Each structure stands twice: as C-alpha cells, then as structure tokens.
TrEMBL record:
<dbReference type="InterPro" id="IPR011006">
    <property type="entry name" value="CheY-like_superfamily"/>
</dbReference>
<feature type="domain" description="Histidine kinase">
    <location>
        <begin position="173"/>
        <end position="394"/>
    </location>
</feature>
<dbReference type="InterPro" id="IPR013655">
    <property type="entry name" value="PAS_fold_3"/>
</dbReference>
<dbReference type="Pfam" id="PF00512">
    <property type="entry name" value="HisKA"/>
</dbReference>
<feature type="modified residue" description="4-aspartylphosphate">
    <location>
        <position position="467"/>
    </location>
</feature>
<dbReference type="InterPro" id="IPR001789">
    <property type="entry name" value="Sig_transdc_resp-reg_receiver"/>
</dbReference>
<dbReference type="InterPro" id="IPR036890">
    <property type="entry name" value="HATPase_C_sf"/>
</dbReference>
<dbReference type="InterPro" id="IPR005467">
    <property type="entry name" value="His_kinase_dom"/>
</dbReference>
<dbReference type="InterPro" id="IPR000014">
    <property type="entry name" value="PAS"/>
</dbReference>
<dbReference type="GO" id="GO:0005524">
    <property type="term" value="F:ATP binding"/>
</dbReference>
<keyword id="KW-0067">ATP-binding</keyword>
<dbReference type="Pfam" id="PF02518">
    <property type="entry name" value="HATPase_c"/>
</dbReference>
<protein>
    <recommendedName>
        <fullName>histidine kinase</fullName>
        <ecNumber>2.7.13.3</ecNumber>
    </recommendedName>
</protein>
<keyword id="KW-0547">Nucleotide-binding</keyword>
<dbReference type="GO" id="GO:0000155">
    <property type="term" value="F:phosphorelay sensor kinase activity"/>
</dbReference>
<feature type="domain" description="Response regulatory">
    <location>
        <begin position="416"/>
        <end position="529"/>
    </location>
</feature>
<dbReference type="InterPro" id="IPR036097">
    <property type="entry name" value="HisK_dim/P_sf"/>
</dbReference>
Length: 539
C-alpha cells in the first residue's frame, strides 16, 4: 500500500509540474505575442522615423512613417545608404557621426534628408549600436528650425532698427547742438558787419565767436571719445596728483553748497592715459553729480587700486592691475530702467537745454579706449557711484613734465614752414596766419608735392606742418618718409579725426588737434624750431 501511495503521489506531482510548465509556456507565448504587437504598433504608429542600419549605413529596416516625412516608402529606402539621402553639405559630418555611433551611443545629431520631391527636411537623430547593427530614431524638426531662424532674423531686424534709431538720435542731437552754435556765430558775424560799431561791441561779438568755436570743438571731442575714435595723447601720470589738482576746479563747478571730499592713498598711482581726457571725464561726472544733488550734498572722489573689474552689463569679471577712481554723490540716484541706457549718446534725464547727453558717452569712450572699464552703482533716493578702472602702470623712469609752453603769439622771425594741407581754405588760412606772424610759408596740396619741394630744396625749410587725412599718402606716411630722408627736419601733424591715429596713435609725431587757434599753431612751431636748433647746435 505504501508503494502504491508513493507512485500515486509522484504521478500527481509530475502531472502538476507538467501543467505548470504548460501554463508557463502559454503565458510566455502570450507575453511575446503582446510585446511583438506593442513593438509593431510603435513601429507602425510612431511619428518619429525608426530605422535599422548596418555599419556601412545601409538601411535594413525602415518604419512606415518614412512615407509621411520623406515621401519615400520603406521598400524604396531598403538597400540604399544614409548617404543617398543626406544633403551634400552634411555628408562629411554625417560620416563622422556614423563612425562615432559604431562604438558608442550617439547624442542628438542634426542633418538634412532629401525628400522624394527634392526638398530637404531637418532631422534630429539619436542612435545606438547593438549586435553589429545600429538602431536610430529620427525626428522631423524642420518647423522648429525654421521658427528659430525666423526668430533670429526678427532679432537681427530689431537690432538694425535700434541702430538706425540710435543713428537718428545721434544725428538729430548733433544737428540741434551745432545749429545752436552756428546761430551764435552767424549772428555775431552779421553784427560785426554793421557800420559804426563801437570797439566794446566788436570785441564782445568776437569773443562770442571764439567761445562758441571752443564749445563746438569740445562737442566734436565728446563725439569722438564716445565712438572711441579720438586720437588720444597717452602719457604716464599720477592719478593721485591729478585728482588733487582738479579738486579745486570741481569745487568751483559744483558750487559752495556741495561739499567735495577726496580720499587718496599716500603713494602715487600711475596710469598710461590721456591726462586731459581724464580731467574731462572727472569734470563730466562731477557736473552730473551736482545736478543729481540739485546743487546741494556731498561728492566724494576716492582713489584706490584693484586686481579685477567686477562683473557688469552681462560681462564677466576682468583680472588685472587697475587704478580705481570712484565718484560718489548723495543725489537722487538712477532708476534701474535707465541704468542700461545712461552711456548712450544724447540720452539724458535732465530737462530740455540742461544737458547734451554726451558727458557719460565721453567718459566710457575715454576709459574703454584707454583699456579700462566703467562700473556704476546706484540707489534711487540715496545716490550714485561711478568707478573708473584704468590699467595701472609702473612709475616713469624719467619723470619729465611734458607740455607746450603757453604764452602770446610768437614772432616767426622768418622761420620757413612747409604747410601740407589738401583743403584749400584751411591751407590758405594757415599760411596767411603764419605770414602775419612773420613766418616764411609754402603750401603743398598733398604729400607727393611736399616731398617734391623737399627733394628740390632740402635745406629750404625749418619745419613741416602737415594734415593727417589726405588723398594718397597720408600725413603719418609723409612724416615717416621725411624722417627717413631728412631725419633732422621736425614734422608736426594736425587732424580733426583719423582712424589711423585712433587705432595706432601718433607714431611719435606731435599732434595739434583741429580746430586750432593761431596761438596754438604759433606755440607748436616755436617748440619745433627750438627742437631743430637744439639738434643742429654743435656738441
């Protein structure tokens, strides 16, 4: 009975195991069928292009959506390679991508695929290798690409429109200011023509013309400084001393109700920049501070050093050795919406007739052209701090004060001057003015004519006074040629603006800025004659 029972139990267990195995097989087959149907549904219904390619790029399997995206049926693509459909400009990059995906998964990659109608679609691919095959998934991103390009085009058109608006504001502001200046000059000239004019009135009108031309010259200087096209005259100077020197003038400009304080280190801080433009920048900032305080408050000018410029206006920090000049006021502050625009030309928050909007343009133009930066911190109702970061330099080895001696008009005593000027009116004025002062002058209309005069009579002239901007050979090239041929003949240059000077400096030549006065011209020639006499004197 026990044997029968054991055999019966074993038979039952075997039958149960067979049933479980059969059920497991059936469930497995069901799962495989379900997974296959799911895969087939994804393959058939996916809006992304699914492909299987070999290592050469040949299509082995293509999902049906190829017909919708590319116009090709899957059967038409089988046996062809990806290179049969890729845009010619994308062939090389596609080849590199295929080489990469043979060893590792490929992140998102863009190229263009040719449709059956000859047009191209932008495809974004993700691919991965498996069992010597490559499985890739491509999405049509043509619409997104076109939208992005349209957005970029719209942004570029907006930037161009903003540039044109800025140009309009610039020209409109320049025209307004210069028309005001020309009105004063024209009215003064008309009044000077009146008969029986008293000497007092004649001098008054002449003084008005002189003052107005000086203001016009400063206006053009501000424009050039804003555009960073000014021919600066850099020299090494001590910022601490300059701030101390200009303090009294700033106090006069701001008035007695503004308390001006300075905070400077005991040791000198040297920079290599244009000292006159530096002074002008401080004056512009001081005047703005006075107006922001409505003529009453405290202005602090502090000089420090720094090893970097902090991040500002979407720019990262800048490492270096800097001298920092900070001007802080207790005025009304600047609204956050205006902070991004304060350096624009002719942008001003002052009332009509109270400011040109060029002061801060001059400041940032001078500092940028000197290799530095400007930062601004402001809080409405509490005040503003402008900080000028100028590259620090070492103390000059020979601290000799440079400058042109001032004084009255100098008698030329027959000094022979070759004037080179392509503008007939300016050239005639310069030669006649010099002749009035007793100089012996000759006018050359261009550099070639000047070199001809020097070649025929090399000992005739004591100094050459040349414009920079001329057709053909410019004044700098003329000066360099004269240096080569006549090394002891001094050359002085003059210019209102020159991109060569703005980019490369004066090449060692003395420069007289236009518009210049007869006094300025006289002092320049006196300096030139003194230099020539020193070089020709016996040792």
């Amino acid at each position: 009975m026990r044997n029968v029972a054991d055999r019966t139990r074993a038979a039952i267990e075997r039958r149960l195991a067979e049933d479980r195995l059969r059920d497991l097989n059936a469930d497995l087959e069901h799962r495989v069928e379900e997974r296959t149907r799911e895969r087939d549904r994804v393959w058939r219904n996916s809006q992304d292009l699914l492909v299987v390619i070999d290592r050469r790029g040949m299509f082995l399997s293509v999902s049906p959506v190829a017909k919708k995206i590319l116009g090709w049926s899957p059967d038409e693509m089988l046996g062809l390679t990806v290179f049969d459909f890729v845009h010619p400009d994308d062939l090389r990059s596609t080849g590199r991508a295929l080489d990469k995906v043979k060893g590792d998964a490929l992140p998102t990659y863009l190229n263009r695929y040719r449709r059956k109608d000859g047009t191209y679609r932008w495809m974004s691919w993700v691919a991965a290798p498996e069992d010597e095959l490559i499985y890739a998934y491509g999405r049509d991103v043509t619409a997104e690409k076109e939208n992005t390009e349209a957005l970029h085009l719209a942004e570029e058109q907006l930037r161009q429109a903003q540039k044109m608006e800025a140009v309009g504001q610039l020209t409109g502001g320049v025209a307004h200011d210069f028309n005001n200046l020309l009105t004063v000059i024209r009215s003064s000239v008309d009044l000077l023509k009146r008969p029986n004019l008293t000497e007092e009135r004649r001098l008054r009108y002449i003084e008005a013309i002189s003052d107005t031309t000086t203001r016009a010259s400063k206006l053009t200087g501000q424009l050039l400084a804003f555009a960073r096209r000014q021919a600066l005259k850099p020299e090494v100077f001590d910022v601490v001393r300059s701030v101390g020197t200009i303090r009294d003038m700033v106090g006069t400009l701001t008035g007695s109700r503004v308390r001006v304080e300075t905070s400077v280190p005991d040791q000198p801080c040297y920079v290599d920049a244009d000292p006159s433009q530096f002074d002008t920048a401080l004056v512009n900032l001081s005047v703005n501070a006075r107006d922001a305080m409505d003529g009453e408050g405290q202005l602090t000018i502090a000089v420090t050093t720094a090893t970097s410029v902090p991040a500002m206006r979407s720019q990262p920090p800048i490492d270096g050795d800097f001298v920092v000049v900070a001007l802080s006021d207790t005025g009304s502050g600047i609204a956050a919406a205006d902070l991004e625009r304060i350096f624009e030309p002719f942008f001003t928050t002052k009332g009509v007739g109270q400011g040109t909007g060029l002061g801060l343009s001059q400041v940032i133009g001078f500092v940028k052209q000197s290799g530095g930066e400007v930062t601004v911190e402001s809080e409405v109702g509490r005040g503003t701090t402008f900080s000028l970061y100028l590259p620090r330099t070492s103390e000059p080895s020979d601290a000799v004060a440079h400058g042109t001696a001032s004084g009255a008009l100098v008698d030329g005593h027959g000094v022979r001057v070759l004037v080179v000027e392509d503008n007939e009116d300016v050239g005639s004025f310069a030669t006649l003015s010099l002749q009035e002062l007793g100089y012996d002058t000759l006018l050359a209309a261009n550099a070639e004519e000047a070199l001809g005069f020097l070649a025929s009579e090399p000992d005739r002239f004591d100094v050459v006074f040349s414009d920079v901007v001329m057709p053909g050979m410019n004044g700098i090239e003329l000066g360099q040629e004269i240096r080569r041929r006549h090394p002891r003949l001094p050359v002085f240059l003059t210019s209102g603006y020159s991109h060569v000077l703005a980019q490369n400096g004066t090449f060692g030549f003395e420069l007289l800025q236009k518009p210049y006065s007869v006094e300025d011209l006289s002092r320049v020639l006196r300096k030139a004659v003194g230099w020539r006499q020193a070089t020709l004197a016996p040792a």
